[in-house]
Design goal:
single chain, alpha+beta, 4-stranded antiparallel sheet, 3 helices, 32% strand, globular
């Protein structure tokens, strides 16, 4: 019986920690989702995603889905590909703030899928955070 009680306390603690992720926003702030997406620029068949291609992708694919605004900047980094090799490449980082809604989630997934298809990418890294924002 003692083991069951300890187990219940353990699982209660785990489930309690899962809800700590949500923070209370200060007056004048609103709870928002921040998605940061990392898009590699190297094409597997050779070449890179050019600045013009990136601008066209933002204009045609991202902006219609998030017309309220976005921030993008160039970066460089590295990651381990599915074949285990370290890949160093230039990239673009895209930061989107949006409400925690299913429609926004669908739009983010559509952006990632279109980039992977259009530029033959293996992956697009996504970092999603709950944040408080104010204007």
């Amino acid at each position: 019986m003692r083991c069951i009680q300890i187990g219940l306390v353990f699982f209660s603690t785990l489930f309690g920690c899962a809800s700590v992720d949500r923070q209370a926003c200060a007056p004048g702030e609103q709870s928002t989702v921040s998605d940061v997406l990392y898009f590699g620029m190297a094409k597997p068949t050779g070449g890179i995603v050019t600045g013009e291609e990136w601008a066209a992708f933002l204009s045609a694919v991202v902006t219609p889905r998030f017309p309220a605004g976005l921030t993008a900047w160039p970066a460089s980094g590295q990651w381990r590909g599915a074949d285990g090799q370290i890949v160093r490449e230039d990239s673009y980082v895209l930061n989107l703030f949006h409400p925690a809604e299913a429609s926004a989630e669908r739009e983010i997934l559509a952006i990632v899928a279109e980039y992977k298809k259009r530029f033959e990418q293996e992956a697009v890294l996504r970092v999603r955070s709950s944040v408080c924002t104010s204007l």
